[in-house]
Design brief:
Layout (H helix, E strand, L loop, with lengths): L3 E6 L3 H6 L8 E8 L2 H11 L8 E4 L3 H6 L6 E4 L6 H10 L8 E4 L10 H5 L3 E7 L22 E5 L1 H14 L3 E3 L5 H28 L4 H22 L1 H4 L3 H4 L2 H11 L4 H20 L4 H20 L14
Parallel strand pairs: 1-2, 1-4, 2-3, 4-5, 5-6, 7-8
Antiparallel strand pairs: 6-7
Helix pairs in contact: 7-8, 11-13, 12-13
Bound molecules: NADP nicotinamide-adenine-dinucleotide phosphate.
């Protein structure tokens, strides 16, 4: 089978996270395009690991001249922020960049393939390809750069010809892929946001609590992020219910009561988060086979705290401000 020739647009987190895989699985990254020549040159260098020829690197301004010297790409992947997809798609169509290509795809988890209206009007098949991943910022971390990690799932939808090429490439990579109905993509993307983005927001809230207990904020954030990563790693191995630990899983109603008493003196958002997520933990603990009577008692405490939250008039939002609800 001939190599799938790919062109990548964008130089941000998703572009950098995916680039190393775009020359694997029978594909070859032939060009990267962006707004800054330095950024595309950097990305082309990092994408050419393993002794492969680096892809050509162009700004939009240099694109028409650059592409005229290359055989056309089969597929274009637009890794730009959601709000810029339509504009970049139109720009690529205007520059005749799509000439000779079979399809174009964007990486948004919330928008449909149809967002690529300009590509479609030039006769290309269109798709959306969402990697279920939280890619690190460029030059992230304290140690050596991490090896690229293949996202655990890619979610696809769009025109058959584009989806078929992408699914074949993902299959050859050994990646898991699933098609979704475009109307239900926002639900899927809300699930991704809850897990990755709101997961971090939750740890930020937890770190505030730990800081109130006297643990320096920076240390609290790192330690709690590592604790959560450990729990998530367990869950990804054995499933959520078996991975659940803690007082709700054990049915320790006295411990839950002590937590709620401690939170009662703080701004309501702490108790609200605890009561809301605690009730989800009760559902999970039921699935895990925790003692039903103890769980009902825990649930009653959490309901009480939630209704106390609903009737509270509110208070200072920042616990460090020393406010009492
Ligand atoms: N980050 C993730 O973990 C992740 C995961 C799955 C899917 N995605 C999807 O991947 C896509 C890119 O997200 P990202 O996180 O990589 O964003 P990002 O790091 O903010 O990078 C955005 C890229 O879009 C470019 N861009 C923005 N406006 C533009 C415009 N008007 N014209 C041309 N280029 C423009 C930026 O160029 P400059 O550098 O020149 O500003 C940058 O290269 C989004 O659709 C997102 O939903 C992201």
């Amino acid at each position: 089978m001939p190599r799938l020739r790919l062109a990548l647009v964008g130089t941000g987190r998703a572009a950098a996270g995916l680039a190393p895989f775009l020359s694997q699985g029978g594909a070859e990254l032939v060009a990267v395009v962006g707004r800054s020549q330095d950024a595309v040159d950097d990305l082309a260098r990092t994408a050419s690991t393993g002794g492969r020829r680096p892809p050509a690197a162009f700004t939009f301004e240099r694109l028409p001249a650059g592409l005229s010297a290359l055989p056309p790409a089969d597929g274009w992947i637009l890794a730009v922020r959601d709000d810029a997809i339509a504009e970049v798609d139109e720009r690529l169509a205007r520059l005749s960049a799509y000439a000779g290509a079979r399809w174009a795809a964007h990486l948004s988890g919330a928008l449909p393939a149809a967002q690529l209206a300009a590509a479609r009007s030039t006769g290309l098949a269109v798709a959306s390809l969402h990697p279920l991943a939280s890619f690190p910022p460029a030059h992230a971390g304290r140690g050596a750069p991490r090896a690229p990690v293949l996202p655990p799932l890619f979610v696809l939808e769009g025109d058959r010809a584009a989806v078929a090429d992408l699914a074949a490439w993902l299959g050859a990579l050994g990646a898991r892929a699933r098609e979704v109905d475009p109307d239900r993509k926002p639900l899927y993307h809300a699930a991704a946001s809850l897990s990755a983005n709101f997961g971090l927001a939750l740890i930020s809230l937890a770190a505030e609590l730990a800081a109130l207990a006297g643990i320096p904020p920076d240390e609290a954030e790192r330690a709690l992020a590592a604790l959560a990563a450990g729990a998530m790693e367990n869950a990804s191995q054995v499933g959520l219910a078996p991975a659940l630990t803690g007082p709700i899983r054990r049915g320790d109603v006295g411990t839950v009561r002590r937590h709620l008493e401690a939170l009662a003196g703080l701004p309501p958002r702490f108790r609200e988060a605890y009561a809301t997520l605690g009730r989800e933990a009760v559902r999970l603990a039921r699935r895990a086979g925790a003692p039903p009577e103890a769980l009902s008692a825990v649930e009653a405490e959490l309901e009480k705290a939630a209704s106390a939250g609903a009737s509270a008039t509110g208070g200072p939002e920042d616990a460090r401000g020393g406010g009492r609800a």
